[in-house]
Design brief:
Layout: H1 6-10, H2 21-30, E1 34-43, H3 53-72, H4 77-89, H5 92-95, E2 103-111
Antiparallel strand pairs: 1-2
Helix pairs in contact: 3-4
Length: 115
């Protein structure tokens, strides 16, 4: 849209990574402070539990707003999230909640006690 320089876009890194259940198990297993008591995948844990578009955008802004402001400046953040709301509204999940393919990995950990 021409609102920020190409250099700013090229140097931006959005630090999100979704580990697979196998990767999570390896991470938790290598931790010396906890044991895995229970781990399961909940597929579409509650039908129609996806946040509405504005709530989803507000949650993203709450979590990542500072990172975006620090990198791009506060002048474009409001516009950025307005465009984000429009993009979300056009996705299949929000057009039809039955398209939700959300998976939740439930992990119950038990702290190891060192004596």
């Amino acid at each position: 849209m021409g609102r920020v320089s190409a250099a700013k876009l090229d140097t931006f890194n959005f630090p999100i990574y979704y580990a697979t259940p196998q990767q999570l198990k390896a991470i938790f297993s290598s931790n010396q402070s906890f044991t895995i008591e229970r781990m399961e995948i909940l597929r579409n844990p509650g039908k129609h539990t996806v946040l509405d578009v504005k709530s989803r955008a507000a949650a993203m802004r709450a979590v990542h707003g500072k990172l975006l402001t620090d990198h791009f400046g506060s002048e474009i953040v409001d516009e950025l999230f307005e465009v984000y709301v429009e993009k979300l509204a056009a996705t299949p999940i929000f057009e039809n909640p039955d398209n939700d393919k959300t998976n939740v990995v439930l992990v119950v950990l038990k702290r190891k006690i060192d004596y």
